[in-house]
Amino acid sequence: MLRSLRHLLICAGLGLGLASAACAGPVEAGGRAEIAAPATHKLSLRSAAALIQDQETGEILYGKNPSAVAPIASITKLMTAMVVLDAGLDLDETITISAEDMDALRGTHSRLKPGVSLSRDELLRVALMASENRAAAALGRSYPGGIEAFTRAMNLKAQMLGMNDSRFDDATGLSSANVSSAEDLAKLVRAAHRYELIRSYTTLTGHELHVAGRPLAYHNTNRLVANGSWNIGLSKTGFTSDAGRCLVLQAKLAERQVIIVLLDSWGKLSRIGDANRIRAWLERNARSQSTAVHKAAQTGRNPAPA
User: Fold this and answer.
1) Which structural domain range is residue 102 located in?
2) Which residue in the list 20, 74, 175, 181 is annotated as catalytic?
């Protein structure tokens, strides 16, 4: 699905517009339209769709096919977590993994075997940090009314957040019917960042569960959270063959709180590469603007737009 979407993006991107403080940027050689705030340095990303937003002002700093709708894989789990926490369910309640939680769609592996019992809090932690699919499935199944009630709550929450191009079909993101756009996911990240537990669990570098008397070590699927040079306040990765490699995060970069959405990165490491390219781009432009202000102060003139 998403591979054909890449070809649609080439055409759809040409007419793309976005109402914001940003201005239209150049169209790349491949035909993908970009939107960016005035900047001295050019930014080129390998993700099929991307968005960079100033979290405090809402200003769009950069956009690449931001309204294109595509599968979002495990980015879904941010919505799963919000619905669970909104319901005020007992986080200490024990939930037992069942055969219903096994992935019959893609056959993905999990170390949480049917019969394993964990608290809702532990399931939430490994679902967010390590993208554990059976943990997320169990969270949806154990919701009052079951998975059907849970997905209804997910879609209602999306409507409340103004995520008009988003649809949710399951709690894990394994279903390609879970779709959104970079614009909508920026709204999702902004909302999820308000939850202390989501901020905490998505930025843990690792966690150890004790299952059947033995330890199970889990690690964050985003290697950047373990990088001391990054100041990340929320993070979530996603991957399926349809969605490609995805990443959303909130971080403080160049003295600015920003939301970053990267969808369908082509290579195994390209979403991390794109995040690092964004960081370098923001820092270069911040330095350029600071230099312009300094020179203007010396000459007594207002700086020209960067």
Assistant:
1) 1-300
2) 74
